[in-house]
């Protein structure tokens, strides 16, 4: 007998990239009697291309083997595939009007005298195709017609890991196919474009495309179609312009001779087929996917999804379809960024994007605390999701107000972390939204203006900061009174901005007033009082009043250690200030020792890249020399 490939619809791919040992794994498992192997992964990761290459390698091998390709997207396509097998091997009775073709093929495949065979069930993504019943087959599901014959093997490509297990009967027979390695992705892009001179841009592009083979092929087709006016670098620049441009590029469908004629070559459409399937089978799982698509792609904590936790069955189906994975820590999930984008565009097309966007914002607003020091551990875990939320402004309504509060808290944390550009963007959006919804004199609006001004001050934009702080101060005086804590805070902020501009006499006047009022209203050891004492001491130092500055700084540092703790950022600021004061007094050894302690603690508490850490480290380096 000679090998027959008449039912295989694809030629060999000259651009194929051998991805590690996947083909070797298929070969080893198919060499066992009655073997069944499943390639499982997202749509577009190259499962069918691997199966095509393996089939051609079998064809080129020494052993005579029948190889049959069956499109398995629907029951009708599977039955067409069985009919093609019947014709290929010239089964008797196949042309009878009431012939049970699957039963005839089953009998032929079960007969070891007919030689070795291999069937590829491609795109077997719907379990009802194989386990749903049909009156035409006497109530038997199609899975019953897949024999476990010693002389045959079955290879399945599927997006559904649960179906893969049902068809193969063993998790050991499942080979998970993920995105490419960077090296393989670059090789694929180079083969598709024939030449690749923009190496840095190419590396950035395949990373932006999540190393998904279909997305890379799609991008290459787009670039080639517009050559020589288009390039990798130009495509990448367009891709980074924004979500709408990105979706337009990923919707490009150039056609592929090695994909089923009914399958789209646009990666977004490819994944949306999975979304539609999940929605039809389990709507609650589709809702969970929809919500998850708005989070940052990593660290999607289970606690954020559905109190008290996401439904296990909903999570399971998303994992079976490789749309989400469990995070390494095990308390949350991760997704591919392009899968999230595809989900959002799918929601937009069905008019549901705003619904799930608002759910996401509401959950984040309820979960993300203020940026105060005691909340930093929680803020750190959730902050990437706040950055994502900053791009998803809801339409007018209560959720818009929650969005502004979320960004206010996020800006507060980013400001204290020294991420001033991020803090400025968030604080500006929070301020404008609060002002639009609540009016300029509302407490939340004034808080947002105050925070925005503080960020501007730390960025050195002093005139704009001063204008805002003066406005906040006057409004608070009028609405709350001159000795209200919020009014005093705005006076202290204005004094700090004046101090940064070298207007020390004006700053001193405000700082003394704030300090004395806080001592009376809050107590001498209250954190706010200590802050005002530190501000006044800084002014004394800049005026050359070293002894007065030192006395206040020592008092602030010692009280802060007791009240706040030795590691609190405010305590570290007082250590930093005292070290500079000692340096100015000529106490170089004492100053260097204290600054070294401050720098080391700041590295541990704030991180090595925080502006305050860098400032202390720079001082240590300068003072040593």
TrEMBL record:
One of its GO terms (molecular function) is ADP binding. Keywords: Hydrolase. Residues 25-193 form the NB-ARC domain. The keyword Hydrolase applies. NCBIfam families: FxSxx_TPR. PANTHER family: AAA+ ATPASE DOMAIN-CONTAINING PROTEIN-RELATED (PTHR46082:SF6), ATP/GTP-BINDING PROTEIN-RELATED (PTHR46082). This is P-loop containing nucleoside triphosphate hydrolase protein.
């Amino acid at each position: 007998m000679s090998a027959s490939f008449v039912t295989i619809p694809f030629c060999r791919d000259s651009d194929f990239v051998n991805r590690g040992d996947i083909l070797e794994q298929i070969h080893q498992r198919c060499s066992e009697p009655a073997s069944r192997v499943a390639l499982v992964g997202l749509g577009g990761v190259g499962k069918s291309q691997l199966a095509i290459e393996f089939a051609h390698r079998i064809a080129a091998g020494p052993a005579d083997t029948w190889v049959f390709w069956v499109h398995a997207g629907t029951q009708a396509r599977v039955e067409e595939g069985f009919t093609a097998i019947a014709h290929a091997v010239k089964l008797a009775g196949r042309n009878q009007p009431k012939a049970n073709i699957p039963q005839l093929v089953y009998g032929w495949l079960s007969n070891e005298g007919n030689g070795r065979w291999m069937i590829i069930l491609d795109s077997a993504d719907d379990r009802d195709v194989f386990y749903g019943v049909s009156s035409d087959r006497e109530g038997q599901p199609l899975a019953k017609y897949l024999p476990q014959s010693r002389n045959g093997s079955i290879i399945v490509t599927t997006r559904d890991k649960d179906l893969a297990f049902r068809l193969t009967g063993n998790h050991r027979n499942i080979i998970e196919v993920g995105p490419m390695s960077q090296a393989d992705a670059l090789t694929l892009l180079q083969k598709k474009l024939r030449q690749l001179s923009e190496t840095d841009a190419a590396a950035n592009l395949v990373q932006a495309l999540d190393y998904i083979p279909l997305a890379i092929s799609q991008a290459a087709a787009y670039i080639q179609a517009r050559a020589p006016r288009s390039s990798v670098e130009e495509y990448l620049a367009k891709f980074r312009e924004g979500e709408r441009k990105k979706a337009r590029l990923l919707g490009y469908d150039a056609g592929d001779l090695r994909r089923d004629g009914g399958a789209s070559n646009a990666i977004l459409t490819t994944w949306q087929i999975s979304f539609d399937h999940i929605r039809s089978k389990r709507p609650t799982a589709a809702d969970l996917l929809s919500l998850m698509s708005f989070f940052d792609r990593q660290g999607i904590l289970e606690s954020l999804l559905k109190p008290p936790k996401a439904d296990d069955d909903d999570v399971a189906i998303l994992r079976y379809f490789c749309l989400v994975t469990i995070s390494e820590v095990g308390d949350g999930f991760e997704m591919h960024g392009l899968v999230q984008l595809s989900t959002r565009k799918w929601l937009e097309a069905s008019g549901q994007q705003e619904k799930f966007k608002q759910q996401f914002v509401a959950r984040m607003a309820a979960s993300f605390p203020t940026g105060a020091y005691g909340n930093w551990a929680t803020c750190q875990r959730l902050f990437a999701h706040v950055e994502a939320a900053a791009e998803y402004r809801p339409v007018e309504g209560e959720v818009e107000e929650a969005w502004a509060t979320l960004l206010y808290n996020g800006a507060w944390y980013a400001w204290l972390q020294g991420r001033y550009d991020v803090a400025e963007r968030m604080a500006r959006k929070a301020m404008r939204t609060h002002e639009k919804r609540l009016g300029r004199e509302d407490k939340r609006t004034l808080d947002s203006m105050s925070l925005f001004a503080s960020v501007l001050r730390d960025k050195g934009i002093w005139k704009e900061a001063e204008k805002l702080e003066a406005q906040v101060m006057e409004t608070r005086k009028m609405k709350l009174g001159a000795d209200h804590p919020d009014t005093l805070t705005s006076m202290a902020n204005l004094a700090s901005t004046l101090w940064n501009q070298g207007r020390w006499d004006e700053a001193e006047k405000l700082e003394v007033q704030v300090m004395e009022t806080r001592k009376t209203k809050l107590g001498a050891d209250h954190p706010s009082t200590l802050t005002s004492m530190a501000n006044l001491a800084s002014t004394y130092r800049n005026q050359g009043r070293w002894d007065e500055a030192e006395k206040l700084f020592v008092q602030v540092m010692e009280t802060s250690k007791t009240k706040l703790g030795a590691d609190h950022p405010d305590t570290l600021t007082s250590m930093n200030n005292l070290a500079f004061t000692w340096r100015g007094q000529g106490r170089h050894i004492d100053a260097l020792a204290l600054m070294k302690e401050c720098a080391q603690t700041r590295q541990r508490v704030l991180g090595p890249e925080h502006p305050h850490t860098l400032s202390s480290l720079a001082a240590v380096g300068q003072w040593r020399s």
